[in-house]
Amino acid sequence: MRTEIGSGKADVVAVPIAEPTEPAIASACTSVTFEDVPLTHCIADPATHMVSMDLAPAGGAPYRSFAALAAARSADAAPVAFAMNGGMYDGEGKPIGYYVENSERLKELSRADGPGNFHLKPNGVFYGSGGKWQIRTADDFYAQVGDRPQFGTQSGPMLVIAGKLHPEITEDGPSRMIRNGVGVGPDGRAHFVISEGPLSFGKLARFYRDVLKTPNALYLDGNVSSLWDPATGRMDTSVPIGPLIVVENRQKAPS
Q1: What are the pLDDT digits (tens) for 166-185?
Q2: Which uninterrupted H or E stretch holds 139?
Q3: So where are the chain's domains?
Q4: Tens of pLDDT along 226-249?
Q5: Which residue, 42, 72, 77, is CA-closest to 57?
Q6: Is the pTM of this model over 0.70?
């Protein structure tokens, strides 16, 4: 079980981009600043995007990096709008909590107690089918969700629960590191945020509550937080990561 130690910025590697054969697709990510901390805010819109989980090639070991994921994608796959690490994992890169990929459950929901951020209750699940994406606490998910979604990943702790900060998260605590999370707004859009500098749990949570106004938001990870944004050539590299949230464009740019 990993517990956050220290802080650090994931390296950013400029990936060479081949001469485009079609007009470039605009990035879904923008730079913002909240209380003097630079953030990158990426929006997945159900009208234009699809969300899925990707852990490993069929029958293989986890990718552990965006480069491996990119190399494994077929030429006819939908264009990636962006991707982000999404959920706590063990030493092999496998999820330690609920995980569903392509409607197949690879790991059951965890309601166990234990150490680390994942067990700072309540933790939660980001999940969805088609264009409907949601975030629920693990207990609420267990009680209310009967049908298996197309994708799902469990992480923790929750950042915002029904419009309020997680009860164990202070407004701006002493722990500082690169962090990322996801929240779903009232309009159904998913807001992915990664910090470009160290920040506290509370500051990230308040950005979701006060600026993005997402009723529920979920912490994805810290220190290893990474983003792949093909439109800008950004592909973060850090220590090996685990489950990946992949946001694809529903249609290729018109030719």
Answers
A1: 999 999 988 899 999 999 99
A2: helix 138-144
A3: 27-47+85-226
A4: 999 999 999 999 789 999 999 999
A5: 72
A6: yes
